[in-house]
Amino acid sequence: MRVAKEQVDIKMEIPGATIRQRTDFGDASGFGKVSGEYFTLAAGVDTTPLFQGLEGNLCQCPHWGFVLRGQLTTTDAAGTQETVSANDLFYWPPGHNVKVDADAEIVMFSPQHEHSLVINHMIEKTRG
After folding, report:
1. By the 8 A CB rule, do 8 and 25 touch?
2. What pTM, to 2 d.p., does this model score?
3. Mind listing the pLDDT tens digit for each residue in 59-89?
C-alpha cells in the first residue's frame, strides 16, 4: 500500500508539531492493527509535558520508523538517551520521551490501539 503524505490524516497540529496518522495500515502479529504515521516536528519540541499522566509519564507504545530529515533524541525510564538522524531506521520500545534536536520529519509504524491512546492523551493535554 502506498499513501502520499498529504493523504495521511492530520490528527494533531500545534505550533512546532504536526502529527499525521493512517489507521488500519497493516497488521503485525501479536500487536493487532498497525498505523502508519508521518510526523513533522520543529527543533525544541519535547514530549515530556505531553506524556504527563501516562504510565511512568512516558509513551508506552513501541514504534518502528525512519528519519527523513533532522535529529531526535529519546530518553527512557532509566535515563538512557539515543539519538537518531536523517536516513536512520529506528525502533523505540515502550517507555520513552522524545526531544527534537533539529527540525525533523519521520515516518513511524505503531500498534494502532496503543498509539491512538497516546495521541488522544496528547490532544487532551494541549486543550488544557
Report:
1. no
2. 0.84
3. 999 999 999 999 999 999 999 999 999 989 8
Q: Is the pLDDT of residue 44 over 70?
A: yes
Domain count, the chain: 1
Domain that holds residue 49: 5-127
**3-state percent breakdown (helix, strand, coil) of the chain, nearest 5:** 20, 55, 25
User: Max Cα separation, the chain?
Assistant: 37
CATH number where 19 lies: 2.60.120.10
Q: Residue 21 has which C-alpha cell?
A: 496518522
Non-local CB neighbours of 112 within 8 Å, separated by 6+ positions: 23, 24, 25, 32, 33, 34, 35
The position carrying cell 497540529 is 13
